[in-house]
Each structure stands twice: as structure tokens, then as C-alpha cells.
Amino acid sequence: MVLKIYFPQCCNRADSGLMVGRWIAGHDSAVVLAVIHYPFIPGQVKRYIQQIQAQSGVELSVLGSWSLPKEGQEGMESFLRDLSTIFPQERWLQINREFGKTGFTCEVLTQDQNGGTTQLEAKKKKKVVEEGDGEAGGDGAEEGEEEKVIFVHYEQKKVMLSQLHPIENGVPDPKADPPSELRQMFRMVANSQPLFFLDKYDDGPLKTTHWQSEGREGSIIVELLKQASAPLCLLISWLLSIWTCFCNIRIFSLYPLRFLSTKLSTCIQLSYRTEHMRTLSSAKPAAGHTQFMRKANILVSLLVDVALGVLLMSWLYRDNHITMLANALVPAADHIAKELDELLQWLMGAPAGLKMNRALDQVLGRFFLYHIHLWISYIHLMSPFVEGILWYGGLSACLGLTFALSLLSDMVALLTFHIYCFYVYGARLYCLKIYGLSSLWRLFRGKKWNVLRQRVDSCSYDLDQLFIGTLLFTILLFLLPTTALYYLVFTLLRLVVVLFQGVLHLSVDFMNSFPLFAVGLRIFRSFRLAEGVKFRVLCEEPGTALHLMMEINPLKYGTVVQTYRTPTYSCYPKDSWTALVKKLFVGELIYPWRHKTTKTD
Amino acid sequence: MGPDSVPGPAVPWRKVLWEQQPFPDNYVDQRFLEELRRNEGIRQYRYWTVVKEAGFVGQQLSCVAIFITLWLYMEQGLLSPESLLWTSLVCTLLGYVLYQALTSHDESGCELRTRLADLQSATIFLSFTFGFSPVLKTLTESVSTDTVYAMSAVMLLAHLVSFPYAHPSPPGSLSLNAALFASVCLASRLPGALHTFAMLSCALLVFALWPCLLQRLRENAPGHFNALCVGVCVGGICGLGSQSPGGAVLLALALGSVILLCPLLLVRLQRHKDNIQGPWDEAEIHEDLSHFLH
Fold it and tell me: What residues form the membrane-spanning segments (chain A) (predicted)?
């Protein structure tokens, strides 16, 4: 049997006294939380322990005694032994540290249960556990029924503040297993926070040694913020309720408006932000660690977002950048239209020496040209208002950079509406041809698609069916290259736009979901997010117990991001690349926002 | 006979596997080849019967030749589309009357099409062809002529290969479609929309309706059928000869080999047929389950 004693590092040099802590259930190990110094009145100690127990919910007990004799203090042995009768325990630890020596010695006094008289049997432990062979030896150590003692030193502050993360992708069913020893220990230290409030300088009946917070003076600002946050939350939630009432007006649930609002990324961002604010302003304090981290992440990314947005705004409204942008926008749209015009003219000739059907080519080309003409007139009609739109749109940047980006994405979508239209026409035409050709090819071979059995069956067609089918098949086959070329060109144009919008959406999504607070915590207070622990051998003097230093392994950055990522409306594209290519080949429409909605098809 | 047969002990060999016998596993005795059977269920062909059947193949070949001849005439402007249309119309009407006459001969027809349905089909054919002919005319404009010819040739060949010679009455989907595809390709090379229309109607006549009539003739009047086959063959050779003598010679050779030479080879080679069957064949399941029933 190995007895493990978790000993706080801060108590290494504490004066002699009583060790307060707890045995871990089911494991042969004890956690020392604090040392209560002499002199004390046992009744007060008991009351104090009960009081703390009531506050923290951790069952505390006196584990044993701790002695670090100063010079000239001798003869404590018997006194210490007597203490165990005052605080009756099953096992009484008696830890000694001799002045000037690094190692501790520990004696375990076992109390006999059956009998009023306490028969104490003391066993002197002086264990050296050497690496390699755990050779037990030492002066005056009895072989046989000895217990080895390992001291595990821990930093109380770090253990108290750190959150031990479950191992990812490890063995599941954490519910079935009782929490491991380490996890119990972490939880115990974290829960016994009230114990640590007793200050070194407090005047009280008891003097203790444990981790001391660096002082409350630094936290005055935090306290003030805490006080201020309550009315702020109230204000925000009141504003939010007004906003929600406004959003719920019946007119917004009418068909075109609702449809539009699901398509415009600004609206989506707005609803998303509303939800964020609702989470932030809820009156309840965060329930657990996850909830707290979520709130903190949202708050920090909100602040950063707004700061970046204000930065952008200050740039926009300085030196008339808005006007410059507006003046550049209309010529740019004109230029795009002109380029498209040239492209269509090229397509209407013999592009790249391809054999196109001249009649269909002309028809399609003129159709698209007319469309561009319509578009240019629309742009010119709009041009006087562009500056105003930009000016007011720029104001949205004060809500955050994500809003500005969403607005930009929407504006790009609106300005390239003609490309979208071309793409849809081309894709529909192409899709029709592909489906027609595939079913007519089955007719050509005398087969048909059996819907019930999901397979191709043979079928005997009538003469007129065959004749018309073949006629159509021939026509579609010879017209296919022309349609395919138009489809290809417009799909490429559309893909450029989709790519641009996709980059915007991804960056907005990144800003919304990136756990800034957690990453900051990982950088500056890496012990707060623990993945596990590692042990370092502190001292291995022969004749003393093994001393280990417990250090906290911080969580990996990837895991931090993965664990604390705020869930957003946009999951990354579900379509694989092959599915996308297949869709493109068949002529199904692709949308940038298809991946965003939560509905799954 | 067994490869490593052991001179027999007193126990006779039995062809069973469930018994322990003093013979190697691959042992067989003298009765091994007694159950050998040769050429079971063979049909002895007679030369002239085969020639008559092959006449249908030759006839179809000639039909393709006649269609190509007509197209050549149309392309060179020697045949006006109007005259082709009128001729086709007359031929169709004559054929239809003949078809109806032959139908009334046999009483077994259970799912006879009504006249109205025929009229409906004809209307559909004509209206669709007429409506699409301007589109069809411009269809292959940008495709090079060689490509069109090659495609037509491949499709006509596919038509000939996949034609259901045994039961041509509902023409096979693939063969008819291939022929129609080829005729659309060819028709789109003609100078005018009306030419295209006439050519497609003609194609419909030759590839879709003519085999139906011929099948009816073969069933009801075999003597006339043979004469008609010879007539079509001669017509095909003469027609092609008027445009390209070389083609006519080739067609005549092909017809000769298909109608006369191939049956001769078949009958000759049948003597060498040597199919053996025996107890080593895979088991055949005869569906006689009566003894399972009681």
C-alpha cells in the first residue's frame, strides 16, 4: 500500500499546527488543505471546521499534526500524540519536518476501533523510493507491514483555479465510472474556497496557513464592475425586449419579408447578436464552468468586434472616404457590365473555335445582353442614392465589424444580382437538358426508370413515343454544347462571387465563434485550463519519503478552440468537394447560404 | 480407364461417395463412356429454308440502301421533296389498305388498334416532324460533314445489327431509334426545311412501318413475301447503281454473301458440329416436383 499525501506547497514552511483536510474516498490518499497553528482551543477548531463545512459543502476533518520545530522547541512528540485523542480519527498523520532538511517524515497512528482505550501503534516511516527498483531500505525501518508514503506537493492556487478537462476522445462513459482520484482532489480543493478567505492578518481565534490571495485591494475594480453590471444587464434586457417586440410585429412574418430576412446575412447576424445579448444579459449567474466560459467568450468577442467596428468607422468617416467609395462603385458596376457584354459578344461568335449551334447561340446571347442592359439602367437609376446608402450602412459598423462585413456581403450579393440571374438561367437550361438527355437516352435503348423499384427496367414503347423521343434526343444532343458553354461561363462567374461571399461569411463566423477569452486564459493563465498533471521528483534523500511536485499540464490550443467555440448558425460546408462538383456537373443550383441554415436536407 | 486404377478386388466398384471402397477417389470403370451423348436436340437445316429466312436480312440491308439512295437524290436536287412526299403518301395509303386486308384475314388479333388511334399517331408524326424540321435543319450546321456521315453510318450499322429479324412487328427500340437518329443527321444536311420533312417522313415509312407490313406478309402470305424480298433487293441494287455503281456492286456482294453464301456455310459446317453431353455435365433441375407432394 502506498499512502499519498497531497500537501500544499505554501504550507512547507508553516509553523507547527493541525492539518485540516480530507481523506479521498476509495483511495488511500489524503489532501491537506490548510494548517491551523498553535495555540488554539480545540472547541474553536471544531466549530470553525463545521462552519467551513457548511459553507463549502466539503467534509473537512483534522488529518493530523504538522510540526516544524523552531530552534529550541523540543519535546513536542508527546503533545502531538495527545492531540489525536482530542480529534479522534481512524488514522492520525503526524508529519515532521526537521529544520534545515528538505524531506519530511511521517508517522501514521492507527486507532483501534474496538475498545474504549486507544491503543496507538506507531510506525516510523522512512521510505526512499528510488527510481527503477523501489528498493525499500533505511536505517531502523522494519520490513514487512510498512506503508510507503509519497508526498505530492501541489500549488494550491493553481489547483483551486484550474478546471480539469475530461480527456477528449478517450474512453467514454464518464457517468459509469466514479470520478478519478485526481478529479476528486481537484474538485475538493476548488470547493473549499471559503477556507482560504481567512486572512493571515485577520484577528481571530485561529491562525492558519494556506494559499493567500494577493490582497483584496486589486479586486476593488472588479467589485465595482460587478455592482455596475446588474443595472447594465437590466437595461440591456429591457432594450432587448423592446427589440424583440419590434421584431415580432406581424408585418415581418409576411412572406417576402421573412424570406428576405433569412437570406440577408445582415439579418442573420442581427438575430444572432440578439441571442448573444440575451445570453449575456440574463439575470442568472453562470451555472457552471462551461456556461461561464461561454458568457465570457461572447463578451470578449463582442467587445473586440465593436472595437474593430469603431476603428473601421473612424476610418470611413474621415477624409470623405464614403464619397470616394460611392463614386468608385458605379463605374465599377458599369465596368463589370461592360466586361460581361464583351464576354457575351465573344460567346455569340465562335468562342475558342467551338462548334456551337448558331441559332441558339444568338438567341441566348441576345437574351443575356438584354438582361445586362436592364441591369445597367437599374444601376444608373440607383446611382444618386448610393452615397446615402453607404453613409447609413457605414453606421452599422458601430455595432461591430461583423455587421459591416455582413452588410458588405449583402451589398455584393445585390450588386452582382445579374450574374446570379445569368447563372440561374444557364443552370436551369443545362439541368433541363441533362435530365432530358438522360431519360431520353434510356428511351433510346428501350429502357425506362422504374420509380417503384429504383432501377432501370426494359420497356416496350409505342412507335410514336419512340419517334418523338428520338427526335427530341437528337435535338437536345446537338444543342447541348451551346448550353453547356453558357452554363460553364456563368458558373465560373458565379463561383467567383460565391467565393468572395464565402470568405466574408467565414471571417464573420470566425469572429462570432472564436473563443477569445478562453485562448487569452490559456496564454496568460495557462493553469486555469488543465488537461492533466505531470509529476516531478522533488527530492530523493535516502531516509525520507518520496517528494513529488504536481504540475499542471495546460490544455492544447486546438482543444481550447474546439471546446469553447461558440456554436454559430453556420456550420462549415456539409457538401464534400466531390458532391459540389457533381452538383455543378448536373446543373443543380449552388448557394453560399445553403450551408448556413440549420435545416438539413 | 481411371488413371491409376488398381486391379480390382472382389468388390465391384459403385459410383457412390458415401461408402468406403478400396478404389482411389478418381477411379472410374469401363462403363464411363456408355452414357456419352452427341448433338442432342439438333435441328437439321435445309439450305433453301435458311435462304428464305436470310432473305429478310438482305431485304433490310436493301431498305437501308434505298433510303441512302433517296437521300442522295434529294441532296443533289434530282428529287423534289413534293414528289417524295406524294409518293410516300400513296405508298403509305396502299400499305395501310394492304395491312388492314391482311389483318382481317386472321381473326386472332386481340388488341387491334382502331383507325382513330392510327390517325392520331399519323397526325402526331406529321405535326412534330413538320414543326421541328426548321430546327432540325439548323441542327448540324456547325458540325462538320464528315462527322455527320460517320455518325449516320455508325447508327445505320447499329440499326442493322440490333434489328429484331425474328419478330420485327413492333420494331425494336434501339434499332428504330438508331435509324431515326441517322436519318435526322442525314436530313439536317439537306438544303431546305421541306426536304428535311420529306426525308424524315420517308425514314418513318422505311424503318418503322415497312417492317410491320412485311412481318404481316410473312405470316399470312409467304409466297408473296419471298417475291417481295427479291424485289426489294433488286430495287436496292438498281437504285444504288444509278448513283454509284461501285456501291451497287458492293451491295450486291453483301446481299449475295448474306443470302446465299452464309446459309451455305451454315449448312456445310453443321456436319462438323460435335456437342457432347454426359454424366459429367452440371446437374440440371427439371421442375418435376410432383414426388415432393406426397
Answer: 235-255, 298-317, 363-382, 389-416, 422-444, 465-489, 495-519
